[in-house]
Amino acid sequence: xxxxxSGDEVIVLAGRDKGRRGTVLSVSGDRVxxxxxxxxxxxxxxxxxxxxxxxxxxxxxxxxxxxxxxxNPETGKADRVGFEVVDERKVRVFRSTGKxxxxxx
Length: 105
Hints:
The protein is an all-beta fold and 105 residues long. The chain has no helices and ten strands.
């Protein structure tokens, strides 16, 4: 079970986007892609066969998972995540408050 999953809201801890918040688009191994964070310019060549227009596009680049932390809406800060067994299910919990991640209050 992963501590950070796709769809989670995270805060960037290191890098040029430090302090910014975003939603995780994808997680693969130890890399995560966050919406609107770590954007790079990519030069794209036009491809008339597929109708692709050329130019410079912005692309979300992956960053290491250690550079992001889960956002705790209750405290308004980044928080660490642990695991507990609740009702015979393994769930993620915030370390500071002990509340289940993503639970509706």
